[in-house]
What does this fold into?
Amino acid sequence: MKILVSNAGSTSLKFKLFDMENERALCDSRVERVGSAGAAAFQYENLVTGKKIAREGLCVREYTDGINLFLSAVAGEELGAVGDIREVEAVGFKTVIARGFYGTHELTDEVMAALHDGARIAPAHNIPYIEAINVFKKLLPEAVMVGAFETEFHQTVPLERQIYSVPCEWYEKYGIRRYGYHGASHGWIAEAIAKLTGGRARKVISCHLGGSGSLCAIEDGKSVDSTCGFSLQSGIPHASRAGDIDPYTFPYLLGEGLTEAEILAGMAKRGGLLGVSGTSGDMRDLEAAADSGDACAKLAIDMYVHAIVKSIGALYAVLGGLDALVFTGGIGENSTRVRSMVCGRVRHLGIRLDDEKNASRGGARTITREDSPSEAWVIPANEELNVARRAMKLLRGQRG
It folds into this structure.
């Protein structure tokens, strides 16, 4: 069974094709700057033969153009990973939120309608996915479209940790609750840490740190709490989203003369690391700027680390202990500084960092000393394979 996984962003498309008989990735591709006329970039690599292509300065006005670029390459004579595009039995999407559909579902008209409604909660994510899904439905009509929702992994969180202290009818009628996100990443970490430790790590805190981020408390492989709430505009600071903020700042700023659009943009597009630093939401830029004496960049990093440490403390209390602290995501996997700062401030939880291990690069690895009571790990998350596995399970269930 061949399953294609597509990740749709506001101006980008990513693709990875898997042969699920042996879970082998056949090709990897991306299209950047979708919507541009003459400035888009396309990359494609056949992971079996090693052949690759990279093109710049392309005209990719919409998702249809970008998806067609990929489909032409994946079934082409020179770089093709399949002989016929009809070999692709399903296309899986790391969909975010659709009320009433929190697991893995075929993207029927009913699910698509809920996905449209969910765009009110996650517009930056749902809208691009809806467009990409509709394009794939036209271009690959025989393939099954599958939504592997980011909320699925968090359905095991007890109800008292899901609800807000608001009128009960808000939860019952409008679905106001903590949904939790980044489920593909946290779900992968839950499986990976169990295998890597032989099941020894039962109480785990997964730190998905990237352009968007959240922490998850995992007990015996199941999510029991998360820092993300009703929307992705919650929890720890993100690259350009503020994260948790007192809701009364909204009416207050309205009273100060700001418009609703200005306030929402400040929270969701000009907040987070970008907002505090005033220059960038990219941790690599901030670390370089902080090393050059930029006080605002240093403040942004310090604020970010504090939010992570505070969240670790809260989730530790929920778990009642800690066997493993796991870092994943772009920042979690690559920022030696952030990991060092976080681990240094949670020594009281049994973390004894090994500076040499922490500075190393590579795949899944421990970064704590041998005598550390609790372990810290760096584990790259394979979200695409997580989605492909869920899509395959759905298809096999449909076929009995």
Observations:
- The two ends are 15 Å apart (CA to CA).
- The chain has a mean pLDDT of 95.
- Residues 198 and 324 are 13 Å apart (CA to CA).
- The chain is about 40% helix and 20% strand.
